[in-house]
UniProtKB/TrEMBL annotation:
Record SUPFAM superfamilies: Rhodanese/Cell cycle control phosphatase
Domain Rhodanese: 16-106, 139-161
Coiled coil regions, renumbered to chain: none
InterPro entries: Rhodanese-like_dom (IPR001763), Rhodanese-like_dom_sf (IPR036873), Thiosulfate_sulfurtransferase (IPR051126)
Keywords: Repeat
Name of the featured protein: Rhodanese-like domain-containing protein
Top-rank taxon: Bacteria
Amino acid sequence: MTHQIEKKTFMEWLADGQKLAVLDIRPAEEVGYASPLFATNLPADRLFADIDRFIPRRSIRTVLLDDGKGGAVAAAEALSKNGWGGIHALEGGIPAWTEKGTDNLPTFDVPGVPFVTKIRDENKTPVVSAAELQAWRDAGEDLVVIDTRTLAEFEKSHVPGGNRNPRRRATAAIAR
């Protein structure tokens, strides 16, 4: 069964600690910093072909976001008919999400340093200084640096040798 959910419910789900997939189905060029935190862009024209890559279990509670014109509702109904349980569309889409501004919303429009610091502190993410990273490289450590920023941010500036991971936007990792 397909459901539309209100912004209030969506906010509760983002904070309840339960499994939740959030897919912004707008075209990539329309997705901006008003997207809810941890949303993944999977444009509607690729949704049905690629959803299994992003959400491997059809029972995962999932919220689809759109431009407010009903595409998420139609997509949720079609996915539901094809065996996807727990599919929901945010009522009013991104326009409803941002209607009163984004100051108190968990979105990507938080300025860079405060955002990174907040995520780092909340998730207890290990911190590696540039000097430590260079020392690891000089010592021949086998490591991968994954830069999770948007393409525009990556092209403007990134860690030398860093790889861009287009599917992740809100977390970062350095693997050794």
